[in-house]
Amino acid sequence: MLDRRSFLETSALLSALGFLPRALSAEEYERDVARRDVPAGPFRGRPCVVSSANGIAGVKLAYDRITAGTDTLDAIIAGVNLVELDPNDQSVGLGGLPNEEGVVQLDASCMHGPTRRAGAVGCLEEIATPSLVAKAVMDYTTHVLLVGAGAKKFAQALGFKTQTLLTEKSRQDWLRWKSRLNKGDNWLDHDDDVKINWTHGTINMNAVNAAGDVSSVTTTSGLAWKLDGRLGDSPIHGAGQYTDNAIGAAGSTGLGEMNIKACGGFLTVEFMRNGATPEQAALKTLERMVHMTEARMLDEKGRPRYDIQVYAVAKDGRYGSATMYEGASFAVCDEKGARLEKCAFLFKGAERPR
Ligand code: ASP
To answer: Residues 29, 73: one domain?
Structure first.
């Protein structure tokens, strides 16, 4: 056993030799704090909520709650609940398009900046509000991610109501997809005049309050017709969303497989940590995703055959969003009210591979 004195001497020696992190001097600490955008002393920022475009009503609800004093995570979960419970949004919660077997499987994750906590659920069936179950994982367990039957059992134990999530509209869309899969099968083709409007979608929402506290949440039914058991980016911290209370939060919607490989949520926050604005950070993350994309998902000019949007908010209330291909919008609410704004983009809309 080392006594305290020898321990300190040994640590100093190891530290001098580069084996242990050296304690920062007061000056270095101040510099580090400034670099990480952590406010020294009382902080005053601008409350702001940013989300995918389908969250236009949700950002307003969340902003109003945040400015009335509600915690940022509770406020944005209330915001995304609107979309989860809307049967007409076929990308999230109730009415979400099912997997290839006709089963709706939902994914969600959240992070609470001030307490550095996180929760998530994947492949959750029959519970319309996976964002609330993700928060319950965070609030009531030592785990951060529950999946499948275990996630459902956990939710039921807490009193979440089970219900059929497959609406008649989503069931019809699934049958249409299924009937067209193989010309030689025993399903007769439907008339082709009805289009399936959605095959993917999600809601990501990120918020900051005037004290600079930050949270993020993402919830989805994932890709339509996915394989049973497929998890996208939404339930994965660091991919579908990420929060560091010292910097800000970020999340995304779009082809989750591409985002997982780039750790998009985490990376966007890291770019902000290193001085990028939220919009610049989102664009740099998209560039990294393209860099990490396998050949089969790129066209002959190296452009992605998929789209992804990244949304970000900084601790001081700055916000931004970017998409691969020109044309997408995102929702934001701050003191100027709720509105849709155009995402920055990497490629012109006309360049999108058809
Ligand atoms: N990111 C979602 C997923 O991959 C889908 C989407 O946003 O379109 O599950």
So the answer is: no
